[in-house]
Amino acid sequence: MSALSEHVLEEIRELPAKYPQHRSAVMPALDLAQEELGYLTPEAMSEVASALQLDPGYIEGVATFYTLFHLGPIGKHRFYMCTNLSCTLRGANEMVDHLKGAIGVREAEQVSKDGLFSYEEVECLGACEYAPVARLDRRYQVDLTPQKIDALVAERRNPKPEAPHPAAKEEEWLSREGPSAGLSSRSGSRPPTCTSSTSTNPSAATRPRARCSRR
Ligand code: FES
User: Fold this and answer.
1) Cβ(141) to ligand 1 under 6 A?
2) Three-state SS string across the chain, please?
3) Which fold has domain 6-65?
4) Which CATH code, of 2.40.440.10, 3.40.30.10, 3.60.20.40, 2.40.110.10, is assigned to 77-157?
5) Is residue 144 in contact with ligand 1, taking CB distance under 6 Å?
6) Of 49-63, 99-113, 135-149, 169-183, minimum mean pLDDT range
7) 43, 68, 116, 172 — which has fewest CB within 10 A?
8) Does pTM surpass 0.70?
9) Domain definitions of the chain by residue range
10) How far is the CA of 144 from the centre of ligand 1 (A)?
């Protein structure tokens, strides 16, 4: 049985056509594989190699070079804790120590018992003016304090139900009131919905795809 789904393999096979250089498809392909499995297994890397018709050694070389590719299990929510100069001067090491206690791990790469959390220390995330900074679930968490870390961990342990999409509210209102309540019928048309934004940029896997959060 293959490690990657046929759907993902198909997406990977289509990638090279989007780039002038065939090899530019490697990083987005590994990104897709990691998104599906959580981390890159040897089987997944070899399937990526065969889907792109490239040497497996080359694929493995790329996967092992970039730290945002994971070669072993990681927590569902991974903290990327910046411990570069500006963040360290503003207490990054204390934040790392606090995080370890909050999620119950002794060291980087260890996964918490509930499988929800892991962390790693990273170089500058490019948001030094908000130090200390971490990246979590593709968002930046800035001006970190122990209290903020506790809140982030608690939110993920007990996630709140997601608020309904505004489009869903409109549909609900339409079905309650019906077109006779003053709306003209838009048969066959649907309210706009968000589209997914999976990046195919070859450098996307190496840089934070994140928005700042100052909660
Ligand atoms: S040193 Fe931490 S974001 Fe730059």
Assistant:
1) no
2) CCCCCHHHHHHHHHHHHHCCCHHHHHHHHHHHHHHHHCCCCHHHHHHHHHHHCCCHHHHHHHHHHCCCCCCCCCCCEEEEEECCHHHHHCCHHHHHHHHHHHHCCCCCCCCCCCCCEEEEEECCCCCHHHCCCEEECCEEECCCCHHHHHHHHHHHHCCCCCCCCHHHHHHHHHHHHCHHHCCCCCCCCCCCCCCCCCCCCCCHHHCCCCEEECC
3) Arc Repressor Mutant, subunit A (1.10.10)
4) 3.40.30.10
5) no
6) 169-183
7) 172
8) no
9) 6-65, 77-157, 166-213
10) 12
How do residues 118-145 score in pLDDT, each as one tens digit? 999 999 999 999 999 999 998 999 999 9
Say what the pLDDT of residue 162 is: 72
